[in-house]
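Recall the central idea of this unit: under ordinary conditions, the amino acid sequence of a chain determines the structure it adopts. In this exercise we apply that idea directly, starting from the sequence alone.
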Amino acid sequence: MEEIQCVPEEAQEEPDPKLKTIQCPAAAVEEEEEEEDDDDSDQDFRSSNDPFVGRWDPPPVLVCTAGAGYTKEEAEEIFESVYDRDDELLLKWCEMVEGNVKPLPPVPQRVLPKITTCCVSGVGCYHLRYWTEITSETKPDHPYFIPCEMMQVFSLGLSRPLTYPVNIYGWVSVRDGWQPLRNYVFKCSRDDPAMISPGCSFLPLRSPCRGIYVMQYCLIDIGLWIKEEGDGSDDKLLFSGYGEINTSLTGFGLILRRRFQGDCLGLDMHFAFLGDGIETLIEVKAEAKQPSDLRISASTSGFNEEISLYDGKFCGSGTMFKHFMAVNKQDELHIVLKMDEARYKWTSKAGVGVVVAPEHPVSGFAQYFVMNVSFRTRGKEASAWQWSCIGNVVNVSAIDP
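Accordingly, the structure predicted from this sequence is:
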């Protein structure tokens, strides 16, 4: 069970889109990097066991121009208003803890104010630290893999079930220790929103483009809206802003629950930090001549929480899905497929292979159904296995890196 502490975390900050990229001589950049190397506090964020985490590409030189329009006193006022709101939410939550309220809602997550005194002074601004002006997606690949500290998001959901259907669009992403650009776990455009049915609250997870690697801090980057009829001017803001999570306060190996509270609804995120995570890719390719309703989920021996990999109809042939997740190096990975009354289960482990697998073809996919599980370590797919059923012939084999 997650350890509960009724103590406010460190006050943090939130973004302003007004950032400006400037060019400066390479020597100045090198000087800045040398100064950072001398900063002992920065070294605390890095792990000597994780040689690649935190070694980003040379960052763009950014200047936060938002602070130019504010005085220090105005920035302090904005900061205090956000801090007071977060304190009020946390106080109400602590009162529920003391009152033994069940079920207890997720812990309110502190958000970062739009502007801080750091934006005014130009020193230590979180906009610059996390490159928030850059809204592009992070790189899907990096050159080196080793079991290290990772983050796994299990689910995203609204703070309460709905009484009527709504369409939600926007994004939820993590800016992590490998590269502080968006790594999406939810993303839908206004033209193609996620429809949330009455009685439901969960948002459909999207696979991150790679594993999520963490140091001491990571930034949750969120922009969500409820779509209304019309041109978008009447759309309701669900939540827009940033939350910085300190892994040293939350701990590793626990299922954590945080709520990003908006004006009308909150966004609940269930996640965990893994101490020895391995970036793992699950891929399913199949052929179905008739539409089949199926649900595929994954969990590990370390966490009972399920991750939804696929939930819907499949017809045709090709790749059904690819999903990246984090698995502790000693844990088993369980994948379950449910279709009608049938249930199929696969269990794999890094360095071992397939431990449990169906002995018979998946109903409705007798001609072609292939599941690949790749535990990515040491710069390549060093532990990859395949369960395949082609023409009713079931086979389990290792995949050469």
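Residues 1-53 have pLDDT under 50 and may be disordered.
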